[in-house]
Amino acid sequence: MSAVWTDNEVLPIEREQRIERETHKLEKRLCRLTGQAIADYNMIEAGDKVMVCVSGGKDSYALLDILIKMKQRAPVDFELVAVNLDQKQPGFPEHVLPEYLAKLGVAYHIENQDTYSIVKDKIAPGKTMCSLCSRLRRGILYRVADELGATKIALGHHRDDILQTFFLNMFFGGKLKGMPPKLVSDDGRHIVIRPLAGVAEKDLVRWAEHRQFPIIPCTLCGSQENLQRKQVAIMLREWERKFPGRVETMFTALQNVVPSHLADGTHYDFKGLTVNGVASDDGDKAFDPPDFAAGDSPPGLQIIKI
Ligand code: SF4
After folding, report:
1. From the alpha carbon of 225, which atom of ligand 1 is closest?
2. Domains defined for the chain, CATH in brackets
3. From ligand 1's centre to the CA of 30, what distance in Å?
4. What does the pLDDT look like over 132-141, one tens digit per residue?
5. Which of 91, 166, 253, 273 is deepest in the core (most CB within 10 A)?
């Protein structure tokens, strides 16, 4: 009878080789998806100085790490500068990022601003501090971008952040609105980019483990976790567990918007609609709901036959 190896019993050398292969595949995927987003949205152009906001969390570490790799092989020349805003939260390990960034050999700037005291002073105990805190942080980072001569501000939001925001806006704001891969900042003066827009969070978790980033906990401010976002994240994870590929399909959907089949008159002229007399196989079969044949379904979309 032939021996059957369980995962834990695989010979160490084979296991090591498998991990190495998977890590290599992960790195290629991260670079491919990041490169794709940069190209699709024209995020980085020749001569850009990209200010990468590094908070000490896994996502922003990964963003910087991947952009450094991309810079070496990019078809255009651009500069990177990592920026951390030390908000003086109690227990913030202020030596961690400067040491890490210096070792990396990337240009960096640490901005010291005690927004923590301002927020504590202005917000009553027990009330959420995030909106004032993030407003202050945004203003400071825009100023720093100007002072550094940065032409783009890069943030580490990923695909799951974008989808969570989309559902939060839908459930609680009554809006079809996500988190764009590229936008003009609210002060109208900066271009903000999210090069990890197409990257799954679970890949960033694995990359952070592999690279052993010196993660700084994000709970130092003592603020409550955003429970609604947490619930939406759980909902998305549960869907993905039951229907693998669904999250990817939903992200694809964000890039395939059909305004004529939604109901927003500001994005489609329903009032002025006229016939053109031309039949189209792709046209809308108004009397029947759309039919999805099993073979047509993108990954994650389960066809339920009734
Ligand atoms: S979680 Fe803390 S640091 Fe983050 S925005 Fe809220 S108050 Fe600021």
Report:
1. 1
2. 7-254 (3.40.50.620)
3. 27
4. 999 999 999 9
5. 166
Query: How remote is the CA of residue 131 from the centroid of ligand 1, in Å?
Result: 8
The secondary structure element, H or E, covering residue 204 is helix 201-211
Ligand 1 within 6 A of CB of 221: yes
**pLDDT tens string 194-241:** 999 999 999 999 999 999 999 998 877 777 667 899 999 999 999 999
CB of residue 226 inside a 6 A radius of ligand 1: no
Range list of β-strands (E), the chain:
49-53, 79-86, 108-112, 152-154, 182-184, 191-193
Q: How far is CA 114 from CA 2, 118, 140, 229, 306, in A?
A: 65, 7, 11, 27, 60
Report pLDDT for 12.
82
Bridge-based pairing of strands 191-193 and 108-112 is: unpaired
Q: How far apart are CA 92 and CA 69, in angstroms?
A: 28
pLDDT at 21: 94
Average pLDDT over residues 118-140: 90
Q: How far is the CA of 51 from the centre of ligand 1 (A)?
A: 21
Q: Judging by beta carbons within 10 Å of its beta carbon (0-12, 13-18, 19+), is residue 21 exposed, middle or buried?
A: exposed
Which H helix or E strand runs over 138? helix 130-148
Residue 208, phi then psi, degrees to nearest 5: -65, -35
pLDDT of 306 strictly over 50:
no
